[in-house]
Amino acid sequence: WRQVKLGEISLSVRNGYSHKPDAKSGTRIFRISAVRPMELASDGVRYLSGSSADYNTFLAVAGDVLFTRYNGSRDYVGVCAVVPTGLPPTVYPDKLIRVRVPHDQLLPAFLVIAASTGEGRDFIESMIRTTAGQSGVSGTDIKAIPLSIPPMADQIRIVDEVDRHLSIIREIEAEVDNSLRRSRALRQSVL
């Protein structure tokens, strides 16, 4: 496997748009809470005035990997997710870092797995700094994430296997949530 730092292979590592949402509708901008470990809540948005063309350089596109830059909880600092296809034009805010990689060398989904587990996550944890109650990492820290990049066929196989396991976990979580809701409803009806 090829050993690199993320910055050596990435096409772009960039902080997001720095102005606060200022409208009830218009151009979508992700909330920082939209990025959770290995998941992107594509509906976790607020709005900016103006058209998406006004924010062209800060639009997230399919295959971008978004990392959280700051958060009040260390557990959510440096977590990342892939921007899916079919997303309406959406700006990423300055609390997120966008990473673009050459898809013929590194699958974005594989990058998310590598940065969310093992050596990658351990490295991010070691780089987190806390100031005034906010924990954070910088773009320089993200660029320094060590990666072991397997051949493309192995990346595809690993991503498929992780997706399969995460799908099973999500189904079980949904069943547990449904059971808890039923349990609360039954408890209320008994009272």
Describe this structure in words.
- With 191 residues, the chain is of the alpha+beta class.
- 35% of the residues lie in helices and 25% in strands.
- The protein has helices at residues 6-9, 108-116, 118-127, 139-143, 152-190, and strands at residues 2-5, 12-15, 27-30, 35-36, 39-40, 45-48, 59-60, 65-68, 70-71, 80-82, 90-91, 96-100, 129-131, 134-136, 146-149.
- It is globular, with a radius of gyration of 18 Å.
Helix and strand topology:
Blueprint (H helix, E strand, L loop, with lengths): L1 E4 H4 L2 E4 L11 E4 L4 E2 L2 E2 L4 E4 L10 E2 L4 E4 L1 E2 L8 E3 L7 E2 L4 E5 L7 H9 L1 H10 L1 E3 L2 E3 L2 H5 L2 E4 L2 H39 L1
Parallel strand pairs: 3-11
Antiparallel strand pairs: 1-15, 2-12, 3-6, 4-5, 7-11, 8-10, 8-12, 9-14, 13-14
Strands side by side in the biggest sheet: 2-12-8-10
Number of helical segments with 4 or more residues: 5
Tell me the number of strands. Answer: 15
Question: What's the order of the H and E elements?
Answer: EHEEEEEEEEEEEHHEEHEH
Q: Major sheet, described briefly?
A: 4 strands, antiparallel
- What Rg do the Cα atoms give? 18 Å
Q: How widely separated are the two ends?
A: 60 Å
> Would you identify the regions where 5 or more consecutive residues have pLDDT less than 50?
none
Structural class: alpha+beta
The rough form would be described as: globular
The fraction of residues in strands falls at 25-35%
Mean pLDDT: 95
- Helical fraction equals 25-40%
